[in-house]
Specification:
Largest sheet: 5 strands, mixed
Radius of gyration: 16 Å
Strand content: 15-25%
Number of domains: 1
Strand order of the largest sheet: 1-9-8-3-4
Helix content: 10-25%
Distance between the termini: 16 Å
Structural class: alpha+beta
Order of helices and strands: EEEHHEEEEEHHHEEE
Length: 193
Protein backbone atom coordinates (compact mmCIF):
# COMPACT_ATOMS: atom_id res chain seq x y z
CA UNK A 1 0.00 0.00 0.00
CA UNK A 2 1.45 3.38 -1.05
CA UNK A 3 2.06 6.00 1.62
CA UNK A 4 0.14 9.24 1.16
CA UNK A 5 2.53 12.14 0.62
CA UNK A 6 2.50 14.97 3.10
CA UNK A 7 4.53 18.12 3.61
CA UNK A 8 6.08 16.77 6.84
CA UNK A 9 8.55 13.87 6.95
CA UNK A 10 9.81 12.48 10.23
CA UNK A 11 10.43 9.00 8.79
CA UNK A 12 12.50 9.62 5.64
CA UNK A 13 9.48 9.50 3.33
CA UNK A 14 9.18 11.98 0.43
CA UNK A 15 7.45 15.31 1.04
CA UNK A 16 5.00 17.10 -1.22
CA UNK A 17 4.50 20.87 -1.33
CA UNK A 18 3.02 23.52 -3.61
CA UNK A 19 5.08 26.03 -5.60
CA UNK A 20 3.76 29.20 -7.25
CA UNK A 21 7.23 30.60 -8.01
CA UNK A 22 10.31 28.83 -9.41
CA UNK A 23 12.42 29.69 -6.34
CA UNK A 24 12.74 27.19 -3.51
CA UNK A 25 14.25 28.30 -0.19
CA UNK A 26 15.98 25.76 2.04
CA UNK A 27 16.91 26.53 5.65
CA UNK A 28 17.29 25.17 9.17
CA UNK A 29 14.22 25.81 11.36
CA UNK A 30 16.56 27.63 13.74
CA UNK A 31 16.80 30.39 11.10
CA UNK A 32 13.06 31.20 11.39
CA UNK A 33 13.56 34.15 13.74
CA UNK A 34 16.44 35.59 11.67
CA UNK A 35 14.37 35.21 8.50
CA UNK A 36 11.39 36.98 10.06
CA UNK A 37 13.60 39.89 11.18
CA UNK A 38 15.22 40.11 7.73
CA UNK A 39 11.98 40.29 5.74
CA UNK A 40 11.08 43.67 4.22
CA UNK A 41 8.03 45.21 5.89
CA UNK A 42 6.40 47.16 3.07
CA UNK A 43 8.36 46.36 -0.06
CA UNK A 44 8.55 43.36 -2.37
CA UNK A 45 10.93 40.58 -1.39
CA UNK A 46 14.38 40.97 -2.94
CA UNK A 47 15.61 37.36 -2.85
CA UNK A 48 19.24 38.14 -3.72
CA UNK A 49 19.37 40.86 -1.05
CA UNK A 50 17.77 38.56 1.53
CA UNK A 51 20.32 35.83 0.77
CA UNK A 52 23.19 38.31 1.12
CA UNK A 53 21.92 39.49 4.53
CA UNK A 54 21.27 35.99 5.85
CA UNK A 55 24.46 34.40 4.59
CA UNK A 56 27.00 37.00 5.75
CA UNK A 57 28.60 34.82 8.43
CA UNK A 58 27.39 31.30 7.69
CA UNK A 59 25.14 29.56 5.12
CA UNK A 60 21.77 30.19 6.81
CA UNK A 61 19.63 29.71 3.69
CA UNK A 62 19.97 28.20 0.24
CA UNK A 63 17.82 29.04 -2.74
CA UNK A 64 17.25 26.95 -5.86
CA UNK A 65 15.68 27.73 -9.20
CA UNK A 66 13.48 24.87 -10.40
CA UNK A 67 14.20 24.28 -14.11
CA UNK A 68 11.33 24.38 -16.61
CA UNK A 69 9.04 25.52 -13.79
CA UNK A 70 5.25 25.33 -13.91
CA UNK A 71 3.20 26.10 -10.78
CA UNK A 72 1.83 23.05 -8.98
CA UNK A 73 2.68 20.31 -6.52
CA UNK A 74 6.28 19.15 -6.18
CA UNK A 75 7.93 16.19 -4.46
CA UNK A 76 11.32 15.93 -2.75
CA UNK A 77 12.76 12.68 -1.45
CA UNK A 78 14.96 13.31 1.64
CA UNK A 79 17.37 10.70 0.25
CA UNK A 80 18.21 13.25 -2.51
CA UNK A 81 19.57 15.81 -0.02
CA UNK A 82 23.37 15.66 -0.15
CA UNK A 83 26.21 16.70 2.13
CA UNK A 84 28.10 19.77 0.97
CA UNK A 85 31.79 19.94 1.84
CA UNK A 86 33.76 18.12 4.50
CA UNK A 87 31.63 17.07 7.47
CA UNK A 88 34.67 17.33 9.75
CA UNK A 89 35.06 21.06 9.03
CA UNK A 90 32.67 23.87 9.74
CA UNK A 91 32.02 26.03 6.68
CA UNK A 92 33.42 29.55 6.94
CA UNK A 93 32.73 32.19 4.28
CA UNK A 94 35.85 34.07 5.39
CA UNK A 95 38.21 31.23 4.49
CA UNK A 96 39.54 30.60 1.03
CA UNK A 97 40.89 32.74 -1.77
CA UNK A 98 38.46 35.63 -1.52
CA UNK A 99 38.80 38.25 1.18
CA UNK A 100 35.34 39.70 0.54
CA UNK A 101 32.08 37.76 0.13
CA UNK A 102 30.84 37.62 -3.45
CA UNK A 103 27.54 39.50 -3.83
CA UNK A 104 24.54 37.37 -4.77
CA UNK A 105 23.67 38.17 -8.35
CA UNK A 106 21.08 35.43 -8.57
CA UNK A 107 19.31 33.03 -6.27
CA UNK A 108 21.61 30.08 -7.00
CA UNK A 109 24.57 31.99 -5.50
CA UNK A 110 23.85 30.16 -2.23
CA UNK A 111 23.25 26.49 -3.15
CA UNK A 112 23.77 25.07 0.36
CA UNK A 113 22.51 25.59 3.90
CA UNK A 114 23.93 24.80 7.33
CA UNK A 115 21.87 22.61 9.66
CA UNK A 116 22.21 22.58 13.44
CA UNK A 117 18.78 21.25 14.40
CA UNK A 118 18.81 18.04 12.33
CA UNK A 119 15.92 19.30 10.17
CA UNK A 120 15.34 21.36 7.03
CA UNK A 121 12.46 23.48 5.85
CA UNK A 122 11.95 23.95 2.12
CA UNK A 123 9.51 26.65 1.00
CA UNK A 124 8.26 28.55 -2.02
CA UNK A 125 10.08 31.90 -1.83
CA UNK A 126 6.91 33.67 -3.00
CA UNK A 127 5.18 32.58 0.23
CA UNK A 128 8.22 32.93 2.52
CA UNK A 129 7.23 36.30 4.11
CA UNK A 130 3.86 34.92 5.25
CA UNK A 131 5.33 31.55 6.22
CA UNK A 132 7.90 33.01 8.61
CA UNK A 133 5.17 35.10 10.28
CA UNK A 134 3.02 31.98 10.80
CA UNK A 135 5.74 29.43 11.51
CA UNK A 136 7.56 30.78 14.55
CA UNK A 137 10.18 28.75 16.38
CA UNK A 138 7.62 28.10 19.13
CA UNK A 139 5.03 26.76 16.67
CA UNK A 140 7.68 24.65 14.96
CA UNK A 141 8.65 23.16 18.33
CA UNK A 142 4.97 22.41 19.08
CA UNK A 143 4.63 20.84 15.62
CA UNK A 144 7.33 18.33 16.53
CA UNK A 145 5.00 17.08 19.26
CA UNK A 146 1.72 17.41 17.35
CA UNK A 147 1.75 17.50 13.54
CA UNK A 148 -1.73 19.09 13.61
CA UNK A 149 0.20 22.33 14.21
CA UNK A 150 1.77 22.03 10.75
CA UNK A 151 -1.65 21.24 9.26
CA UNK A 152 -3.02 24.44 10.83
CA UNK A 153 -0.17 26.47 9.32
CA UNK A 154 -0.93 24.96 5.89
CA UNK A 155 -4.55 26.07 6.35
CA UNK A 156 -3.52 29.60 7.41
CA UNK A 157 -1.10 29.82 4.48
CA UNK A 158 -3.82 28.67 2.04
CA UNK A 159 -1.76 25.69 0.92
CA UNK A 160 1.27 23.50 1.64
CA UNK A 161 3.85 26.02 0.41
CA UNK A 162 6.51 24.48 2.64
CA UNK A 163 7.79 21.11 3.84
CA UNK A 164 9.59 19.99 6.99
CA UNK A 165 12.18 17.21 6.65
CA UNK A 166 13.85 15.53 9.61
CA UNK A 167 17.31 14.10 8.92
CA UNK A 168 19.07 10.97 10.02
CA UNK A 169 16.07 8.64 9.97
CA UNK A 170 16.85 6.01 7.35
CA UNK A 171 20.10 4.13 6.65
CA UNK A 172 21.91 5.46 3.62
CA UNK A 173 20.57 9.03 3.91
CA UNK A 174 23.30 11.65 3.53
CA UNK A 175 21.03 14.12 5.31
CA UNK A 176 21.76 12.71 8.74
CA UNK A 177 21.60 15.72 11.04
CA UNK A 178 24.00 18.57 11.65
CA UNK A 179 26.16 19.68 8.73
CA UNK A 180 25.98 21.60 5.47
CA UNK A 181 23.64 20.27 2.78
CA UNK A 182 22.52 20.91 -0.76
CA UNK A 183 19.67 19.73 -2.98
CA UNK A 184 20.96 18.72 -6.44
CA UNK A 185 19.26 20.34 -9.42
CA UNK A 186 16.41 18.21 -10.69
CA UNK A 187 15.64 16.46 -7.39
CA UNK A 188 12.62 18.67 -6.74
CA UNK A 189 10.19 17.13 -9.21
CA UNK A 190 6.63 17.89 -10.26
CA UNK A 191 4.24 15.49 -8.49
CA UNK A 192 2.35 13.01 -10.59
CA UNK A 193 -1.31 12.24 -10.26
Amino acid sequence: MATALTNVSFDGSPVQFRMDSPFLACFDPQALDILRESMPQDSPLDVAGLLERLNVNYPAMACYTIPEFRPGLFTLDPHDIKKFGDEEEDFDYNEGDQAEPVPAEKESSFPFAAVDSGALIVADVGHLPRLVKLLTWERYDLGLQDDAVFAKIVEELDGPYFAVINGGIMPGMEFDGDGTYTIPVGCVRPSRG
